[in-house]
Amino acid sequence: MSLLTAQLLRGLTGLTRRLPVQRAQIHSKPPREELGTMDVAVGLTSCFLCFLLPSGWVLLHLESYKKRE
């Protein structure tokens, strides 16, 4: 690596060290009420239906999608 390239890289990295970094101010509190068994079951079922079922359908019918009609 040439001397000029090394100096340019050193200058660029020095510039990034001086830039301010914004950090998110996230504060969390404990839940007001605990989740019940039914709430968890409904949440997991809806995630399954929304994400896994369509991808399973595509994987199951992959051979028919490959065929040209």
Automatic annotation (TrEMBL):
Cellular component, GO annotation: mitochondrial inner membrane; respiratory chain complex IV
Q: Which Pfam families does the record associate with it?
A: COX8 (PF02285)
Has UniProt tagged this entry with the keyword Transmembrane?
A: yes
The pathway that the record names for this protein is: Energy metabolism; oxidative phosphorylation
The record's InterPro entries line, in alphabetical order, gives: Cyt_c_oxidase_su8 (IPR003205), Cyt_c_oxidase_su8_sf (IPR036548)
Annotated signal sequence range: none
Q: What is its main location?
A: mitochondrion
Q: Which GO terms describe its biological process?
A: mitochondrial electron transport, cytochrome c to oxygen
The domain of life is: Eukaryota
What's the stated role of this polypeptide?
A: Component of the cytochrome c oxidase, the last enzyme in the mitochondrial electron transport chain which drives oxidative phosphorylation. The respiratory chain contains 3 multisubunit complexes succinate dehydrogenase (complex II, CII), ubiquinol-cytochrome c oxidoreductase (cytochrome b-c1 complex, complex III, CIII) and cytochrome c oxidase (complex IV, CIV), that cooperate to transfer electrons derived from NADH and succinate to molecular oxygen, creating an electrochemical gradient over the inner membrane that drives transmembrane transport and the ATP synthase.
PANTHER family in the cross-refs: CYTOCHROME C OXIDASE POLYPEPTIDE VIII, CYTOCHROME C OXIDASE SUBUNIT 8A, MITOCHONDRIAL
This chain's protein is named: Cytochrome c oxidase subunit 8
Gene for this protein? LOC113932958
